[in-house]
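Figure 6 in text form: structure in, sequence out.
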């Protein structure tokens, strides 16, 4: 090992911007020291030392203790006290801090350096025995817990017992003798629990505390936190060792935490809490209730003014809102930490825009300051923060927004009651395409099973309906119209409130507040639009969704799923006739009924988009999705059979016999269409290949609607998209059919307009053969949902069971249905784009599907050079911002 390596940096001679080397806390303290701010002297042991310690099997690297001694001597000189001194001892805090904030790591040890001798010295020095022995007993407990691993409860019990013997029963009522006794008992507990003595030697205390910080890097909490937040395991933590200052030395002392602006609203001005005559952990421990920071202006006016000025200075220096920890020792202000403040989405937008106004940052920086993911919540109603809530169950925050309604257990029920004007929350074990009408009718959806990409989640997000998925503690009994969870019983028709942003299902009607898309939001989005290159479109199937999408700034429709147009009673019937048709003639008759319905939908969509491009995907799902469920049918047949036995009149028997025959015929059809693996079966363009009439009907409907628009002076840019292509011959055949049909309609109507014919790339073979396909296709749209399924060979309806375990164990870095698997699926996107453009240089390439609204995926799509992404309307602003940030 190279002994010359530098492991330790004093605050005053640390390099600038040393976050990676010293961790966030150490780097912040060094920067504040360099800026001349009042920081107690100290030094930081590098993150590299932590890594070296780990690599060496938990041995500190050579030279570390020597360098620590040297740095400690400097701290002693600056503080005018010596560590372990018998007259005027220096006490230290030992603090952890990685380059990324990691709440899972070691807690801070305060008052390090105390033993019987130094405690007595501290008492003499300060003339305050209570203070000294209170610090001592706190230190022994903290050290025992954090460094030696004894349960905190054991020390707490000793204190509780002692307090019980006093009159007032408060911490402050403990006598000096009692405090001394608590120290002695705590040490005995440590010895009993660990078979090791509490180290009286201050230097031994320091060495053990530093090693404990290094070890905490690998504790379960920290490892878990890194997994969840995608933080690498090999960056290590820094250890900061600092002279203690005391906020508990009387009423001119205190400690607190403050933000330079309100982290939930963004309003300018100090925001935070403090306590007089207290040490750090008292604020957090909730033993005493802290006061709002504004009151400090009355308590300690001079210190408050000084703090205000320092806070302003820190905000200016860092160019961002700061979260500052401070302590006042007998009127002297000390800063103990500063970091960039976490903030709500609303605050982030307001702060970014106001700081541009104040000249602190420029517009590009402002765009980079707002997390796109936080934006989505702003676009939906939210549960009022002040409201009292009672939790019924918790699941995944599958679709943001909050809504209250009365519970319905079936989609039919939800639809019927919503039609009466009742707000309904649909609660299901899980949803399937057959629940679509219930989901449309509901104000919110809850499922007991399923993940972030379950049917319920995807459909709800698409519609902007709040959804909590996978609330596994729910015990549903739909037949009895009741559910149980968390010790509560909720009956059909009872009120619940769904908070899709946090994944909570709450009892009763909890007040919600509507989103406010203020001027700040619009300003920020306009800056984002100036910066981004990637286009942003929306997935929308109705005029209403399209209008919403435009309001959110969509530049077109990237995916209209035409199958959604066939749900609902009026439409399902002719759709079933079409599917069940025995021959082409019967099929065409059914399609003729569907044509006007489709035309009406396309008309609404084209008008809402008013000249912007609209990509219409031809029918995609397997046909059986439109037919009744096998089980349901057999059930119905059994019921009819039973009714037949009990029938009393001939008429009734006749009717039942007819019904039975019809059900049996339907059953035979459904069985004939049954597929073992429908997602890999007769669907997508395979339908159009077998039944060209379907393609013809859809294209005719689209172009008749387009012609109507043109006649009304409305511009249109239709783009016909052929799904699930894997062979060039498929796109060749289908594209020819589309062009032939479209041109025929346009000729009939005497209307000229430009349109495109393209395809979805959602099978690995299509990506590989993109060159052949681009000979025919004028645009590609990567259907990354299906492409992820087929690349991984992983069904997204079933993957919920094991994907989360995979992510937790680090087998996969993230759920590939939420964040694009850049290495695998991303490779196919890159390759498909390149091969397609090599064949057709002006090929337009986009993405539709969930990933189009995921910030990390959007950044990747920008990097690969796609033309646009398409996502659900509510995610359009998220994608616009993410696309802008990808260019920074
Ligand atoms: P965290 O990372 O959990 O915020 P810190 O290392 O910031 O932990 O320490 C927590 C608290 O301990 C601080 O907010 C402060 O109140 C107290 N503290 C830490 N170092 C010192 C010190 N040198 N003097 C006085 N109090 C300290
Ligand atoms: Mg802190
Ligand atoms: Mg698909």
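Output sequence:
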């Amino acid at each position: 090992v190279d002994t010359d390596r530098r492991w330790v940096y004093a605050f005053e001679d640390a390099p600038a911007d040393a976050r990676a080397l010293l961790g966030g806390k150490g780097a912040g303290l060094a920067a504040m020291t360099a800026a001349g701010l009042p920081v107690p002297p100290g030094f930081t042991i590098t993150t590299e030392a932590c890594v070296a310690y780990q690599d060496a099997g938990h041995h500190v690297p050579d030279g570390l203790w020597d360098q620590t001694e040297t740095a400690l001597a400097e701290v002693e000189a600056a503080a005018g006290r010596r560590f372990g001194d018998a007259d005027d001892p220096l006490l230290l805090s030992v603090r952890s801090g990685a380059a990324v904030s990691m709440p899972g790591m070691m807690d801070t040890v305060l008052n390090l350096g105390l033993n019987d001798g130094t405690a007595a010295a501290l008492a003499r020095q300060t003339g305050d025995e209570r203070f000294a022995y209170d610090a001592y007993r706190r230190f022994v407990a903290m050290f025992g817990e954090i460094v030696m691993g004894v349960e905190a409860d054991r020390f707490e019990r000793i204190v509780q017992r002692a307090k019980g013997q006093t009159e007032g029963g408060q911490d402050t009522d403990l006598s000096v003798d009692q405090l001394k006794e608590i120290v002695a008992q705590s040490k005995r507990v440590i010895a009993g629990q660990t078979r090791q003595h509490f180290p009286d030697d201050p230097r031994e205390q320091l060495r053990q505390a530093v090693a404990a910080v290094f070890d905490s890097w690998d504790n379960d909490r920290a490892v878990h936190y890194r997994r969840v937040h995608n933080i690498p395991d090999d960056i290590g933590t820094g250890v900061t060792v600092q002279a203690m200052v005391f906020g508990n030395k009387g009423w001119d002392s205190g400690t607190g935490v403050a933000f330079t602006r309100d982290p939930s609203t963004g309003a300018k001005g100090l925001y935070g809490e403090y306590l007089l005559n207290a040490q750090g952990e008292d604020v957090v421990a909730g033993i005493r209730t802290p006061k709002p920071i504004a009151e400090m202006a009355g308590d300690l006016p001079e210190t408050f003014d000084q703090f205000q000025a320092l806070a302003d200075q820190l905000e200016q220096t860092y160019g961002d809102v700061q979260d500052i920890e401070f302590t006042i020792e007998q009127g002297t202000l000390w800063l103990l930490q500063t970091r960039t403040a976490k903030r709500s989405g609303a605050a982030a937008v307001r702060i970014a825009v106001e700081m541009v106004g104040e000249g602190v940052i420029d517009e590009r920086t402002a765009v980079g300051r707002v997390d796109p993911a936080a934006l989505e919540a702003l676009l939906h109603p939210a549960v009022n923060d002040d409201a009292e809530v009672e939790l019924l169950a918790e699941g995944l925050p599958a679709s943001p927004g909050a809504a209250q309604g009365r519970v319905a257990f079936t989609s039919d029920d939800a639809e019927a009651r919503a039609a009466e004007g009742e707000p309904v929350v649909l609660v299901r074990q899980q949803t399937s395409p057959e629940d679509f009408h219930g989901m449309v009718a509901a104000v919110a959806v809850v499922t007991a099973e399923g993940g972030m990409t379950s049917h319920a989640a995807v459909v709800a997000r698409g519609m902007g309906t709040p959804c909590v998925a996978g609330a596994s503690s729910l015990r549903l009994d739909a037949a009895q119209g009741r559910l149980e969870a968390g010790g509560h019983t909720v009956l059909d028709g009872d009120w619940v409130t769904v908070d899709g942003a946090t994944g909570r299902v709450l009892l009763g009607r909890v007040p919600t507040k509507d989103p406010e898309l203020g001027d700040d939001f619009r300003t920020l989005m306009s800056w984002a639009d100036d910066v981004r290159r990637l286009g942003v479109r929306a997935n929308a199937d109705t005029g209403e969704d399209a209008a919403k999408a435009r309001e959110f700034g969509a530049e077109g429709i990237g995916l209209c799923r035409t199958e959604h147009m066939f749900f609902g009673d009026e439409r399902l019937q002719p759709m079933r006739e079409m599917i069940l048709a025995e021959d082409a003639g019967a099929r065409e008759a059914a399609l003729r009924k569907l044509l006007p319905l489709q035309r009406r939908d396309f008309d609404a969509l084209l008008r809402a988009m008013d000249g912007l491009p609209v990509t219409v995907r031809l029918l995609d799902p397997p046909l059986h999705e439109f037919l009744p469920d096998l089980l349901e049918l057999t059930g119905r047949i059994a019921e009819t059979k039973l009714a037949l036995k009990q029938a009393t009149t001939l008429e009734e028997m006749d009717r039942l016999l007819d019904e039975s025959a019809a059900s049996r015929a339907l059953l035979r059809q459904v069985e004939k269409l049954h597929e073992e693996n429908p997602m890999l079966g007769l669907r997508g363009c395979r339908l159009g290949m077998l039944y060209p009439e379907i393609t013809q009907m859809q294209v005719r409907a689209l172009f008749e609607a387009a012609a109507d628009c043109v006649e009304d002076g409305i511009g249109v840019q239709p783009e016909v998209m052929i799904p699930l292509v894997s062979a060039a011959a498929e796109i060749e055949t289908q594209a020819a059919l589309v062009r032939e049909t479209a041109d025929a309609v346009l000729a009939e109507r005497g209307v000229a307009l430009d349109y495109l014919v393209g395809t979805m790339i959602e099978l690995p073979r299509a990506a590989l053969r993109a060159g052949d396909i681009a000979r025919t296709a004028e645009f590609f749209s990567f259907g990354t949902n299906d492409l992820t399924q087929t690349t991984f060979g992983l069904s997204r309806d079933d993957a919920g069971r094991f994907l989360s375990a995979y992510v937790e164990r680090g087998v996969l870095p993230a759920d590939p249905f939420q964040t694009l698997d850049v290495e695998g699926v991303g490779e196919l996107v890159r390759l498909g784009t390149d091969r397609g453009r090599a064949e057709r240089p002006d090929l337009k390439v986009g993405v539709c599907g969930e990933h189009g609204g995921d910030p990390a995926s959007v950044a990747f799509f920008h990097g690969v050079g796609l033309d646009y992404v398409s996502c659900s309307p509510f995610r359009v602003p998220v994608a616009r911002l993410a696309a802008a940030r990808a260019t920074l």
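Caption detail: The chain is about 45% helix and 20% strand.
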